[in-house]
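pasting for the record
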Amino acid sequence: MSLTRRTIPELVAKYQLEPNIRDIYVEGRFDYDVVMWFLRKRKCPTQVFEVDFVELPANLLEKYSLQSGAKSRVIALARQLESFLGPENSQVTCIVDADCELLLGNSYDCPLLIRTDYTSMDLYLFEKPAIDKFVHLVLGMQDMDVSVLLREYADVLHDVFLCRAVNEKLA
């Protein structure tokens, strides 16, 4: 199903005319899938949209001194909607990955914007029960010690994360 992209003025009108609407905007498809799964489990009537659903002018990222990318688009969207709807608006929530923000001291303060608890949405699934189920049921590896696997992955992911943080810091 292809959705027509919406403009900021269209979204502002939507939220002003329909005060009971609750929407969430995320970076991409995986984030969409995780948030939708969570909301379905909780029977929440909130809609979730990938940021590509919104038409954002190119100069909007420049306005907020943001680099190109889905995360920056979500941040710009949150800030724009806040400027039109106000900081107390509860109809819109924008979610971005924390990435390297905490380590580098970056902050994108906006009441409509929340960060993941971990560096990315993927890490909500980086736990023994989820990985154990995947390894045994999908991969069919019955003799795999998932605790060892998680430790090995965590070591590598830690190093990759630090390389990514250094890369971001040095631009």
